[in-house]
Design goal:
Layout (H helix, E strand, L loop, with lengths): L5 H57 L4 H8 L3 H9 L1
Helix pairs in contact: 1-2
Organism: Candidatus Kentrum sp. FM
Protein name: Transposase
GO molecular function: double-stranded DNA endonuclease activity
Length: 87
């Protein structure tokens, strides 16, 4: 910085200010993007758990197990299991 002439110093300071403005603007944007990605990952995990529970419930129903027992094992509601047994 000390080796720069007055014009170069002014340009340098202007660039610093511009990059600071970008950081001020992009910081919250980046945080929002990261939060959205994390929420998407979590939602995907929950959907995967639900799909697995449905798969287990269907298998147990096909083996003739009682809806109450299937509900207890799969942790799906009896109403959800009844919908599965109709399909």
């Amino acid at each position: 910085y000390a080796n720069l002439n007055e014009s170069e110093q002014a340009q340098y300071e202007q660039r610093l200010q511009q990059s600071s403005h970008k950081e001020v603007i992009m910081g919250p944007v980046q945080q929002a993007v990261e939060k959205s990605m994390q929420q998407g990952i979590e939602q995907g995990r929950e959907e995967g758990k639900q799909e697995k529970a449905i798969e287990i419930a269907r298998t147990l129903l096909n083996k003739g197990m009682d809806i109450g027992e299937v509900s207890e094992i799969s942790r799906l509601s009896e109403q959800e299991i009844r919908k599965l047994s109709v399909h």
